[in-house]
Protein: AMP-binding enzyme C-terminal domain-containing protein
Organism: Marinobacter segnicrescens
Amino acid sequence: MPGMIESFIEAMGRGGIQPSGVKSCGCMADLVPLHQIAEVTRLLDAPYVNSFGSTETGSGPATAGLIAPGTVAKNLSKVQSSYCEVRLVDADDQEVPDGEPGELAIRGPSLFSGYWQAPEVNARDFRGGWFHMGDMFVRNPDGTLDFVDRRKYLIKSGGENIYPAEIERVLLADARIAEAVVVRTPDARWGEVPVVFVVPAVDNLLEEDVLACCRGRIAGYKMPKNVRLVTDADLPRSTTGKIKRHELEAKLKKPEAV
């Protein structure tokens, strides 16, 4: 998981570990800072598998890309695997044009046959003969795919859709930021607005520095309306390392939130 990588890099440095025989490394979530990818691949002397998939899909639908050891990639655009078919669709299951977010729908020989004793869920997720993953992507003109965010966690601000991962990727590209998590909070004017919890990688990071990372890189309505500087221990995680966003949302409602 993304939250493990910085600790992994530090542990390798402290122990002077010289690994051998590692063929590749990777992380299924798409929120790993590019400088961390460069460092961990350099330490392992192994390429990074720039992939996307899920347990349900078997082998990932986008696993054809590799990042060479020690390389700071320009982006994490995915290359579709050749064995499956992929569509990006809107809420009416119509394909979206290039450059617009759409839910990834897949079919292929490695796809699972359905959820156990869940006919209603299967009818919804396998509608039209395609498995709808719940993950939003954008297709680029060259055919590569950019992960946007999970469809279920969407911030609707003033009628506009904001995907937290888009903001988080911009922030994580800055070496001064070790972790960034965007959540939603109610707003009287806009309905909902984004707030970001940031774990600094340096001692002198300011809230204004965080906002400056975003200016000119994302649309104005996507700018975080508040920045909370926290420690990694302040971020609630599941047993698999995923951030519990709903618990961070709850912190925002408390007068003495971190």
User: Anything to note?
Assistant: Residues 85 and 215 are 37 Å apart (CA to CA).
